[in-house]
Amino acid sequence: xxxxxxxxxxxxxxxxxxxxxxxxxxxxxxxxxxxxxxxxxxxxxxxxxxxxxxxxxxxxxxxxxxxxxxxxxxxxxxxxxxxxxxxxxxxxxxxxxxxxxxxxxxxxxxxxxxxxxxxxxxxxxxxxxxxxxxxxxxxxxxxxxxxxxxxxxxxxxxxxxxxxxxxxxxxxxxxxxxxxxxxxxxxxxxxxxxxxxxxxxxxxxxxxxxxxxxxxxxxxxxxxxxxxxxxxxxxxxxxxxxxxxxxxxxxxxxxxxxxxxxxxxxxxxxxxxxxxxxxxxxxxxxxxxxxxxxxxxxxxxxxxxxxxxxxxxxxxxxxxxxxxxxxxxxxxxxxxxxxxxxxxxxxxxxxxxxxxxxxxxxxxxxxxxxxxxxxxxxxxxxxxxxxxxxxxxxxxxxxxxxxxxxxxxxxxxxxxxxxxxxxxxxxxxxxxxxxxxxxxxxxxxxxxxxxxxxxxxxxxxxxxxxxxxxxxxxxxxxxxxxxxxxxxxxxxxxxxxxxxxxxxxxxxxxxxxxxxxxxxxxxxxxxxxxxxxxxxxxxxxxxxxxxxxxxxxxxxxxxxxxxxxxxxxxxxxxxxxxxxxxxxxxxxxxxxxxxxxxxxxxxxxxxxxxxxxxxxxxxxxxxxxxxxxxxxxxxxxxxxxxxxxxxxxxxxxxxxxxxxxxxxxxxxxxxxxxxxxxxxxxxxxxxxxxxxxxxxxxxxxxxxxxxxxxxxxxxxxxxxxxxxxxxxxxxxxxxxxxxxxxxxxxxxxxxxxxxxxxxxxxxxxxxxxxxxxxxxxxxxxxxxxxxxxxxxxxxxxxxxxxxxxxxxxxxx
Length: 812
Prior knowledge:
17% helix; alpha+beta
């Protein structure tokens, strides 16, 4: 019975008032751990003993998500498109997600239904990716092959209790769509944790950890029998006949057994109807020709992936209880002896075997059964082939801000309370903004720094005295500035490695006369770093202003600057994965500066020498002497130009209007340096190559960008990862600041590039159609699960692939 309706409001930070009226939604009762969603519809759809709950009521007001209804007459059931389930679709122009509250740990089925009807928009033109909270499911997916019958993509995922998200990410200027979603638990131990691993050469060992991997169903075959529709399977699976995959039909006979299999008599496996329906075990193929020793099934598979292959047996062939010994072959090399009475002492007792089969790079997998002698009668009942997907590690949930939910009994009451929260939110936020820090004139000197006189004692007002370190402690830490401890020299002055009395290792930066930096930079560094803490921002331990000194003491970064690892160094070259992780870390640090609790700060001097690496190569942004506060209620900050030549935002240079996007431009230059391992400005090169940004974009337009990639990276970079990285870099370097992404967008894009690097990319054409079917899906007798909660919320996080807001469809 449906619970009384109530209203739910979500207040995302930084955007609560702007989107206030868009988040009102109706919630429904909880549905345990079974979730079936009829996407884009205002009515439920009953099909194959499932009740797909409409999501339209809770998300119709979201601008980046809208529904389409197929206005043509209902299609016949023989076409495979249910008259209700595939008549509507939810369409996303921006990155969006469904969120499920999963109560129990275990392996879950996740099925995604796609049917590309063309009224009023041609859904077959969609191009998008689908991810979950922990792995990628579909990359560069298109619905063009689903115009005649649905594509149903099925996955097995390990899910822990809590929030589970399915993300839809449109590619470039395209869109994403979905017709229906299923999320429900598989039976316990449905996926084994280990299985025998088979190589193309015939060797084998044990493969462990299957239960923690994401699997995608590629084939589910009923050998010797007809199509089994979801309505005839307790887990709503579709099994297709083997005829299209069988190589030598004249040498085998199909057999049907009218009596049901004896599930309970299997000796080693807990085989039930949820393992495979009775119709799988009641049909089989067996070798019927004297002298024919093998029969083979061939499948197109991904060239670069491992597959879990489940082989189903049930002896409905033998006429007596004589032992049946025969062989199972993969790639005609590895063979497994099959003795049906090792698993049961009776006929019609089902069992199955699991194998992890490595690719032989051909894109084909052959599975055969064969005789050991003329008396043997080899048989096979069913096959399942599941691709083992790489775990992406995309921890979207760890980046989410903490949200505040307000649940009230009516719309008016909810809006009234929200109004109070919004007012308090902005009052508190305004009080926490930093005061603007005025800086002096910029001069085009090397490094782009202005020159100031040294300070005199007592001229720094309102400093954080808790961070003040006596000069004697500095002398002790650096052994009175011993030359052997000098580890660098920057625009501010010399940097020494030191050890404080409490054992803390530190980097001690001492200003020198004529260094190009002075009191304002020193003051700004302390004011900024005393107010912020972030994993990807260097931490200030303290400062010293005694004896006319300007000394800053930071946490020690064992691996120096990013520049040290890119060029002109004897350090080993960084791998592409390391470079991506460093860029992601730096981008997160800058994103925190721009949007974090300190009220908004623009760095103004983003470059590889200001990105430091700790002993684990974790990136931390440093050197905040030129930073400027960025009031959130201002769209521009008027200021005299400061920065470093080669990294300066051209729009900022021309207009003197500073925004957060100036840091984005500088970071785009850093990304090019990471890719190409050369400085932003190299005056000794030919004229067209002097400026890295201009040279890189020229090469890109000529299709030669890969020619200027760091030679040490050749052969390391996944082409899709490189393509995403270059696309992100080009966005950062747009001439107009409004066309550039936010730093939040940048680090999402870079994380995506990292996942593309770590995720096997090849997709075979058959993968778009093997799971979909064309048989009837509707059933007259409907077993209805309870409905689920559905609500819409918009996250304050930036989009992963575009500049739009982030949308979620949330199930409760």
